[in-house]
């Protein structure tokens, strides 16, 4: 089945055709590193992780670039407020971002370019725009893009330019007004910027936010590449502006497919620090959420629908994750290592669901219905060794996309040692000693259950 994605640019599902057969180049907008990323940000990052894992499952070679915005209005304001160097501030939050990526088992991008390390190519791109008549210098020496010069401006966000009111140019890096304005490419230095500036043909200053992504994406992926991703809040003005400045600078199509994930809601409302429902990844892990439960909660809805996240869903997610892990352990314990590369027919249905614009609810439904039926076969001892091997293969393919299997290394060595001692005590029919070990395991936050397929260890959280 052909891969189809909903392209924000055309507002319809389109068959995916890579620019180069067997390869896909993806650019995703990364964090602005002036603060810790929150669960809403990671809804988008998890969707992008799913997209990349899906392409790998399909046999594609993936080149993935995600930028780090380490200079903009917010980073400068925060560094001034805290009285620290901007590099010190942003590196702190870059480190925290990578910790959260690893916690959620998000596969890292191939490159994480920092804006501050690519100002030279941004200046060259702005020079092109000025020379070609698409940009101009204002009285304060800042450089602005003239949107009237680009006939396709507003196409991504579906703005009717004829109905738009003429308004003042915008110097702010981040704005969300519906009406378009000439946007800043180079911001002339002001005293409040302190030591944050670069020299340019137009004097001291720094790049605007929008030019950063255009310059860095084309440096690493070329002037024309396959997929650009982000949250729906990036559509306008950020991605709209990227298209305008990139196509005008290079006289080339910029991106073929634009994919955007919807907002994450908290208990049906917006996330807000004042409401006490603002969650960082560290907040949620402290509440007992595991990487696997968070991945499930962020992936069980379609990426183009809003997610209603709630801490009350932790137990529901935990049961789902445990179900997958118990099933996999059961298969492994039932196998006599007769391996093959075959897969059940349900795997094709699973992949077909993902081929259709990453339909994760349908894919999960197919997987769990198959899991239920296979469990019944195991219960009835009516499953062949060949089918067990196929089932193991399917779970591992499933996990390569959703990553819900617990890492065995997550079990503390002390607990593993006690499990081994308990098994030895049971083998010697020393039931009292076995019960002592069971209590010690429980005191460490784990429970052990004896089944016909062997002992099963579960976290109590």
Low-confidence stretches: none
CATH uppermost class of the largest domain: Alpha Beta
- Secondary-structure element pattern, one letter each: EEEHEHHHEEEEHEHEEHHEHHHHHHEE
Domain tally: 3
Class based on secondary structure composition and strand pairing: alpha/beta
Strand order of the largest sheet: 4-3-9-10
Q: Which value, in Å, is the CA radius of gyration? A: 26 Å
Count of distinct strands: 14
How many strands, which pairing sense, and closed or not: the largest β-sheet? 4 strands, parallel
Please tell me what the overall shape is: elongated
Percent helix range: 40-55%
* CATH architecture annotation name of the largest domain: 3-Layer(aba) Sandwich
Mean pLDDT: 92
CATH topological fold name of the largest domain: Rossmann fold
Distance between the termini: 41 Å
CATH superfamily of the largest domain: HUPs
Helix count from the secondary structure assignment: 14
């Amino acid at each position: 089945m052909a891969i189809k994605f909903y392209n924000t640019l055309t507002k319809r599902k389109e068959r995916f055709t890579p620019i180069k057969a067997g390869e896909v180049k993806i650019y995703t907008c990364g964090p602005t590193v002036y603060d810790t990323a929150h669960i809403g940000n990671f809804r988008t990052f998890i969707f992008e992780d799913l997209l990349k894992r899906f392409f790998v499952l399909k046999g594609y070679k993936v080149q993935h670039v995600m930028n780090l915005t380490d200079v903009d209005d917010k980073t400068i304001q925060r560094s001034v407020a805290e009285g620290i160097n901007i590099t010190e501030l942003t590196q702190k939050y870059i480190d925290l971002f990578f910790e959260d990526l690893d916690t959620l088992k998000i596969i890292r991008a191939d490159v994480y370019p920092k804006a501050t390390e690519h100002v030279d190519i941004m200046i060259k791109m702005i020079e092109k725009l000025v020379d070609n008549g698409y940009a101009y210098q204002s009285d304060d020496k800042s450089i602005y893009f003239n949107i009237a010069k680009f006939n396709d401006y507003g196409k991504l966000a579906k703005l009717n330019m004829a109905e738009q009111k003429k308004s003042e140019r915008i110097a702010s890096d981040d704005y969300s007004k519906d009406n378009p304005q000439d946007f800043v490419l180079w911001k002339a230095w002001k005293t409040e910027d302190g030591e944050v500036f670069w020299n340019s043909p137009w004097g001291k200053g720094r790049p605007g936010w929008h030019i950063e992504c255009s310059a860095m994406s084309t440096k690493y992926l070329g002037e024309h590449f396959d997929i650009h991703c982000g949250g729906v809040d990036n559509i306008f003005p950020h991605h709209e502006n990227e298209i305008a400045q990139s196509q005008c600078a290079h006289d080339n199509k910029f991106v073929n497919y634009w994919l955007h994930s919807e907002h994450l809601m908290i208990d049906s409302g917006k996330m807000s620090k004042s409401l006490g429902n603002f969650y960082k990844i560290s907040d949620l892990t402290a509440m007992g959420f595991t990487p696997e439960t968070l991945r499930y909660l962020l992936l069980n809805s379609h990426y183009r629908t809003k997610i209603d996240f709630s801490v009350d869903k932790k137990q529901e997610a935990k049961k789902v994750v445990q179900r997958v892990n118990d099933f996999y352990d059961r298969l492994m314990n039932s196998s006599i290592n007769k391996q093959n590369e075959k897969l059940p027919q349900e795997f094709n249905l699973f992949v077909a669901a993902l081929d259709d614009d990453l339909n994760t609810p349908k894919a999960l439904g197919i997987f769990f219905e198959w899991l239920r039926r296979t469990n019944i076969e195991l219960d009835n001892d009516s499953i062949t060794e060949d089918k067990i091997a196929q089932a193991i293969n399917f779970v591992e393919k499933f996990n390569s996309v959703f990553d819900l299997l617990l890492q065995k290394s997550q079990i503390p060595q002390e607990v593993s040692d006690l499990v081994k001692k308990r098994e030895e005590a049971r083998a010697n029919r020393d039931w009292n000693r076995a019960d002592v070990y069971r209590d010690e395991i429980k005191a460490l936050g784990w429970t052990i259950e004896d089944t016909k397929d062997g002992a099963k260890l579960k976290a109590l959280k």
